[in-house]
Amino acid sequence: MAFALSSPAFGNRERIPDKYTRQGENISPPLVWEDAPPEAKSFVLVVEDPDAPSGTFRHWGVYDIAAERDRLPEGTTAGAKTESLGHGVNDFGNPHYDGPQPPKGHGVHHYHFRLFALDVETLHCDGKAKVDDMLEQAKPHIIAEAELVGTYENK
């Protein structure tokens, strides 16, 4: 089988529930992956909206996800930090998940949850690295990618 990313909260190309948006509880949805390459030493997750008026807008970046993992639970960035995941600074200026919040009446936006399997255990990013910079640092180490797309519209 192919490397795949899914969520028990919504299906591919389906609407993201309000709970996971900035209009709702603004917590990250649960994510699950399977059939990662056996040579993967870590994972990086990026959530981006290419439909944003200003161009691709990055909502979340997580790096140094251990190779043994196959999921991120709901609310991974909520509350006290309990694990050693690295978080890039998103385009809202926050080092955590910020869910969909498209401009009212702007139509349906597509949120790409992209999980990358890497050939390194750590990216050695500092705590102030932007999601875009984190992704650039990861690019030479990507060995596989899985994607889940959710949609959201602010009517």
UniProtKB/TrEMBL annotation:
<dbReference type="InterPro" id="IPR036610">
    <property type="entry name" value="PEBP-like_sf"/>
</dbReference>
<dbReference type="InterPro" id="IPR008914">
    <property type="entry name" value="PEBP"/>
</dbReference>
<keyword id="KW-0449">Lipoprotein</keyword>
<dbReference type="InterPro" id="IPR005247">
    <property type="entry name" value="YbhB_YbcL/LppC-like"/>
</dbReference>
<feature type="region of interest" description="Disordered">
    <location>
        <begin position="12"/>
        <end position="33"/>
    </location>
</feature>
<feature type="compositionally biased region" description="Basic and acidic residues">
    <location>
        <begin position="12"/>
        <end position="22"/>
    </location>
</feature>
<protein>
    <submittedName>
        <fullName>Lipoprotein LppC</fullName>
    </submittedName>
</protein>
<dbReference type="Pfam" id="PF01161">
    <property type="entry name" value="PBP"/>
</dbReference>
<feature type="region of interest" description="Disordered">
    <location>
        <begin position="73"/>
        <end position="99"/>
    </location>
</feature>
